[in-house]
Amino acid sequence: MTDKVYKIGMIGGGVVGGGVLTILHSLSSTLPLTVPKMVVRDPSKPRSFAVPSTTSVSGSIDDVLDDASIDIVVEVMGGTGAALDVVKRALASGKHVVTANKALLAEHLEEVLAAGGRGTSLGYEAAVCGGIPIINALQTAYAGDKVTKVQGIMNGTTNYMLCKMEKGAEYADVLKEAQALGYAEADPTADVEGHDVRAKLAILSKLAFGTTTPITSIPTTGITSITPVDFSYAASMGSTIRLIGTAHRTNLHAENDGPVALSVCPCVVPLGHPASSVTGAGNLVVVSSDNLGSASYAGPGAGRFPTANSVVADVVRIVSGSQPDAFPSRGRQSADVGADTEGRFYVRVQARDSIGIIKSLGSSAEGAGVSIHSVLQGPISSRDEMDFVVVTEACGGREVRAMVDGLIQGGKVKGCPV
Description:
Layout: E1 6-11, H1 15-27, E2 33-39, E3 56-58, H2 62-65, E4 72-75, H3 82-92, E5 96-99, H4 102-115, E6 122-123, H5 134-140, E7 147-153, H6 156-166, H7 171-180, H8 189-192, H9 195-209, H10 228-236, E8 239-249, E9 260-270, E10 282-289, E11 293-300, H11 304-320, E12 342-343, E13 346-351, H12 357-368, E14 372-376, E15 386-392, E16 395-396, H13 397-409
Parallel strand pairs: 1-2, 1-4, 2-3, 4-5, 5-6
Antiparallel strand pairs: 7-8, 7-10, 8-9, 10-11, 12-16, 13-15, 14-15
Helix pairs in contact: 1-11, 3-4, 4-9, 6-7, 12-13
């Protein structure tokens, strides 16, 4: 620690911002830091947290960005418009930045990194998985290692919903409950369609493999088509269902020497897998590497104080001079991105019970180059609307999509298989 007292300007005073201010104020008597300024959208609005008398509150971003005495800008305002301008201006003016904004980093990462100069730090621990210290772990704990896979549950809202559906609840009912509890927004698209996980995965992939991935290039499927029927089939296989983000090195000429494949989708998870035991709004990230093997990082993925703790951890590291580079290269060769996702796939098909359905399935699978591991079907309660599940052998996502297209064109199925 130095004798310098770091002045922190906060931009954003919502749930997370309130937690950050509370923790930083409690540390100001033991650490060389103070929070003289906070910017919020409406300074007259009552707050759910106490604002210290030493912190002035205003509605102008310029009060922080144009103040040369501010050393660290904490951006917890959210969004990708004004927040991008805040982060770039702060870095360009020589201020350190700590942000919890995953969408901003995932969509504008190279632009943000280019704005920084020598001597400025970018902290973003809170941008991925709330209170889990996964960013610092990847920045520091794998300095002499080679990461081969990053995989996990990265969205607490959808995990809460899936755990409820596992017990028989319908999607629409669980969504209303999640919104009432504050887990899901009024517009839940970012969560339920997998966009939130996609943004977090893009950041983790950059950190683990060194290559920036446009988020629109990541194959992403949310949970909106999942029903209790899928959980029944999963249970018959000794498994459950979780929304999983995965980034891993593929095999080209040797093990883990190929390009990186990224995907976000609901997965059938064996009950013995660590992800199957993550309940409620919890998160889990499993990192696989050459030296360490497999290591799991679990904890609360959201919430005022868990997320605020991650923001404060970055601030404390900056103050103490121990904040690592945002994306350490460590001399590793960056991995190319864009490989197809490979694995065994679960496909649920809805159809009217009729002769020739399995034949159509076999023809579609053969034409797509997909080998079928098993076909599962429960008792038929209605011949006008029956379900059966196809589990494939290991293959590529492109082949499975071709098989599904063939099934649709064959005219034997109802709607789009899941």
